[in-house]
Amino acid sequence: MVINDPLGSTCAREGAGIKSPAYIRSKPNPNTMADMNTNPGAPAPRPTLLTVICIISFIMGAWGIISGLMNMTKDQTAVVAEAQAKMEEAKAQLGDQASGVAGQMMDSGLELTNRAAEHAVPIGVAGIILSLLSLFGVWRMWNLQKSGFWLYLLASVIGLVVPLYFLGTSLLAIASIGFVGFFSLVFIILYAVNLKYMH
Q1: Residue 141, number of CB atoms within 10 A of its CB
Q2: Suppose 137 and one of 27, 104, 109, 148 were both cysteines; which one would form an S-S bond, judging by CB atoms 3.0 to 4.6 Å apart?
Q3: Per-residue pLDDT, 7
Q4: Residue 177 near residue 160, CB atoms below 8 Å
């Protein structure tokens, strides 16, 4: 009769250099350990498109501040005199055509220059304030905070209304503001597309 001896068979296997399955230790899975060390509360990475448009907006905001300061400190009398001299020179070159549509556009441009010079200080102050508000909004969006989008939108809309208030609603003024407004609209749309990544 054969008697099964679990202890003896275990000893025999250990003597032969074979470890019992009960004593075999499983190696830790590096992937599992990495998952355990991952911080579940880590913020999501900023999308590349959002990073690019934020950098461009930072540059534009800084230029807006510099432009506002220059507008406030520049000698506006010299600016108007220079614009008037160039206008008279252009009319002299046009001759009889200066009394037509081209001449009317030149007169409108000179009037726009005069109004801009007359309101240079308030336009410059408004430009600096709106640039700072825009930069603050962009900085919040850089940190994936959705409230920054509404600050940027507010600054962009007011930035189109202020020139209309000071410069009037002439065709040339509307065309100039519309050119700026087009690029503002493009950036607003690009930021709106990235709202889903913000909180």
Answers
A1: 25
A2: 148
A3: 46
A4: yes
The DSSP secondary structure of 13-64, one letter per residue, reads: HHHTTPPPGGGPPPPPPHHHHHHHHS-TTPPPPPPHHHHHHHHHHHHHHHHH
Identity of residue 77: T
Q: Which residues 6+ apart lie within 8 Å of 120 measured at CB?
A: 71, 72, 74, 76
pTM above 0.85, yes or no: no
Tokens standing for 98? 């200066």
82 contacts 139 by C-beta, under 8 angstroms: no
Is the CB of residue 59 less than 8 Å from the CB of residue 131? Answer: no
The helix or strand, by DSSP H or E, that contains position 169, with its residue range, turns out to be: none
The Cα-based distances of 62 to 130, 155, 184 in angstroms read 11, 14, 16
- For residue 160, give Cα distances in angstroms to 100, 136, 192: 30, 18, 19
Tokens 């503001």 map to which residue?
177
8-state DSSP, 74:
S
* pLDDT profile of the chain (199 residues), mean per 10: 47 47 49 46 81 97 95 86 80 68 74 88 95 97 96 96 89 87 96 95
101: DSSP letter: H
Answer left, alpha or beta for residue 197, where phi above 0 means left and psi between -120 and 50 means alpha: alpha
Structure tokens at 146: 């959705």
Give the span between the Cα atoms of 123 and 67, in whole angstroms: 10
Q: Which residue type, as a one-letter code, is found at position 182?
A: F
